[in-house]
Each structure stands twice: as C-alpha cells, then as structure tokens.
Amino acid sequence: MAFCIITDSASDVPENVIKEYNLHVIPTPVTIEGKDYFDGETIFPDDFYAIQASGKNIMTYHVSQFMFYEHFLPFAQRADEVLYLCFSTGIAGTYNAAKLAYEEILEEYPDFKLTIIDTKCASLGYGLVAERLLHMQRNGAPKELLIEAARFFCEHMEHSVTVSELDYLFKGGRLTRTSFLAGTVLDIKPIIIVDEKGSLKAVEKTRGWKKAQKRILDMVGEKGKNLENQVIGVCYGMDREAFEYLKSELRARYHIKGILEGRVGCAIGAHTGPSILGIVYLNETDSKYEEYLK
C-alpha cells in the first residue's frame, strides 16, 4: 500500500520529472482530422505544433469518465491511496469526469481513497505543484501535509503568460474579431493570467513581442513572494530563444532557487498556438513546507 501523487498531461510535467519520480500521468486526448491522439503518449509537442502549423483540424476534449476509471483501477486493486492533481475546471470538465469515475470504482472497492484537487491551474502551473509535492514526499513529508501543501500551492500559484500570434485565441473564441484585427495590425500582445476561477483571462496588452516578454518577467517581481527560495516554472511552445531569455532574466533579476523547464503540450497549445510563453510561481510561501523542499 502506497500514497501516490498523480496528474494528467495538461500539467506539462517535464519528462525528466516523470522518469525521476515514476510519476503516473493520465494522457489528455486530442483529435486531429478525426483521429484520436494522446498527449505525451502518442503525440508530442514538436509533432503537434508542426501539424497545427499545417492548418489541419484540431479539437481537444477532456479525459473521459471511462479513461479515468481505467487509470484509477490499478491503484484501487493495489489498495494504494491517491492524490490526483486535476486540470482546472475553469478550462475543462476533467474534475467532474474524475469524480464520476471514482464513485464508480467505490462500488467495487469501497475502501479506495482518492483525493481529487481542482488545481485551478493550467499547464506547468500545476506541473510545478506536482514536482514540488514529489520532492517533499521524497524528503519524508507525511501524506496529510502533502495534501495540505497541494491545496496551498494551487491556491497561491500565479501564471504570467503571453502569446505572439493572436490567430488561435481568436479561433477559440477568446478574442473578438475587432480585437484580433486591431491587435494584428498594431502588433498587440496579450498578457494572460489564470484567474481565481481557474480560467484563462487577458488582463493587459503590450506592443511588441519583446515588451510582452519583459512584462511577464516584471509580474513575477510584482506578485511573487520569497523568490530567492522558490523554484520557478518556465514553459514555452516553440520559441526557444524567448524561453532562454526568460530563464536568464529570472536568474539575474530575482536570484531564484531554481527553474522547472516545461513544454506546453496539446491541451493548452491547441488554443494558444506555438508562440506561448509562461512563467509560474507562488505569491505566498509557508515555512512549514520549506524543510521538505531543501
């Protein structure tokens, strides 16, 4: 019997973390020209963005109740206890499907314990939560503290995000036609956060790609807390040069403890396009967790 931390692939947890901790990741489905693929299992970022650039029809949908049942069942059979970090309900219906699957499994395995946390985070926002919890668990943190820390980290996670291309936000209904046309002509780049409901929300505009990158870096200093003791998450779609710039500036400006590097996969990338850049960090810390994060 073990206490297992798991998540889904919309968390964009880096492959090295998955391998290091033997993390169970439930793949998010994506449909391309009518054919189903599974993020991180049968399709990966480079291939996905190449397909997206070709103009093929792409649709995403959340992990179904049946898929969750199949992934939860082995844990129930082994009598393991599970903490599942779930994609935000503000973006997808993943939480409800997971809850229904859990209720179904309880009919067969009434003693199965599963804590499902609606992270209200996206991409590496909760990928960072997963990595931090796994680090704490390795250092001996008890399960009660891990569950408590998971809720704390999710509640205090900030997302500072921008994109260079507006086409995908417009196609997904997150930009009006007027904003899309004006933004394209004027080289406007949106600054996006994940709000308290766990939804993507454009809160500012900048002119020019470099200014957008500088703005999300500034937001880390404005909202982040105790940055010198934080591992910060940085993720990107295809713009490796901008990604390297963000990492360099974070180290120079804030003297951060470390960086968790991630690639944005299908779940978010399908709606933002390949130019997405994001920084995730905490706006509050708690010393009770620090001893397990050394």
What does this structure look like?
The protein is α/β, with parallel strands linked by helices and 294 residues long. Helix content is 44%, strand content 24%. It has twelve helices and 13 strands. The chain has helices at 15-21, 45-53, 65-77, 94-108, 124-138, 143-155, 167-171, 177-186, 209-223, 240-254, 266-272, 287-290; strands at residues 3-8, 24-26, 29-32, 35-38, 58-60, 81-86, 114-118, 157-162, 188-194, 200-207, 231-236, 258-263, 277-282. The strands form three sheets. Strands 10-9-8-13-11-12 form a six-stranded mixed sheet, with helices on both faces. A four-stranded parallel sheet has the order 2-1-6-7, with helices on both faces. The model has no long low-confidence stretch (mean pLDDT 92).
Which features characterize this protein?
single chain; 13 strands
Which helices and strands occur, and which strands form pairs?
Blueprint: E1 3-8, H1 15-21, E2 24-26, E3 29-32, E4 35-38, H2 45-53, E5 58-60, H3 65-77, E6 81-86, H4 94-108, E7 114-118, H5 124-138, H6 143-155, E8 157-162, H7 167-171, H8 177-186, E9 188-194, E10 200-207, H9 209-223, E11 231-236, H10 240-254, E12 258-263, H11 266-272, E13 277-282, H12 287-290
Parallel strand pairs: 1-2, 1-6, 6-7, 11-12
Antiparallel strand pairs: 3-4, 3-5, 8-9, 8-13, 9-10, 11-13
